[in-house]
């Protein structure tokens, strides 16, 4: 692998990862291959698998590096017995250390393979662990017990932990073992059943935690965030709305499922991103979160998604609550009066000047409603709006009472669910005409929107004419 006599190198650092760009020159000595094996191993483990294999084929110097480089095992499960055999053979053939990543994506019955894998020398020093119960058929739930060994075996070295479709050990068990994850930066739980005491105990044992994701988890009614390091937090409610989503013991369902009702950010001085996402499978009338309260998050920049599914949202002294509103839905031959839930500002004590990016989802998307939202976020730069029921224009912009973000800050607006209808065009024109610094508008069309084949370019041109847009990208 002759890469030249004087390769020009640019070194970039992203977190704990280092990438090297090399500008090759013809001829000369292979200077890369004289690097220590440890450095070459780091290079190989960061390459895509196909490229890493090509390297060892092309250069004899690199061939032994493959087996000794940090393990990065991510094997999809297609057959249970085949999967067990292949994973076992890979771990047996690797001398270690693991260091990088292990993803287990298969159900296990008696834990024989599971325990042997976790105790393999090839996984010493593992940094990233992902365990997910692979879905097979309809007889699934998140009651598969997570073995304590999965956490304590790598507690000192783990940086990222992703768990899906499992039940955590009890709070008493975790407390007795005094779990502490000093280097863990990311926790992502998907459909995990974990008690409130266990969850808060795990969070308390992660002094370096930066990212927390709780996607459809059960077992805790309230989650409280008190962390001096966390920068990003996302949560969505469990989707067990009906018996259709649960195939276990009905009595167990009635007595065991505990859904999250309160999300409280008590003290998060570095928190920049807060995402409270709606349940994708729940009905429109579901009430997944009764209270979302932000007591102290002075650096909050990204907030979403504000929706009527949140019963009450408090940020500092500003309070948002859903109210019922009558809406006239005009059809070609009739006018239908509908009742819709509308997220409104009921108390504005202080404006939320730190928020730069806001997402609003499934609220009554009319101009006058949105104007009330925008008044709360004077420094807003990016706005994402999703409206499954369409967009409406009910009021104009009163320039005698200007909205600060429209006058001085808003640069990008994205409309999800745009169909080019008359009311949709009026809604979009509100931003085109009034956002003085607007640079970009994005329009996302729902999949079920019908557009004649071969007319896409014509449709886009027609929309640009209606919006009076010449050079703005859509």
Automatic annotation (TrEMBL):
SUPFAM superfamilies: F-box domain (SSF81383), RNI-like (SSF52047). PROSITE patterns: FBOX (PS50181). Pfam families: F-box (PF00646), FBD (PF08387), LRR_At5g56370 (PF24758). InterPro entries: F-box-like_dom_sf, F-box_AtFBL13-like, F-box_dom, F-box_dom-containing, FBD, LRR_dom_sf, LRR_FXL15/At3g58940/PEG3-like. Residues 29-75 form the F-box domain. CDD domains: F-box_AtFBL13-like. This is F-box domain-containing protein. The lineage of its organism: Eukaryota, Viridiplantae, Streptophyta, Embryophyta, Tracheophyta.
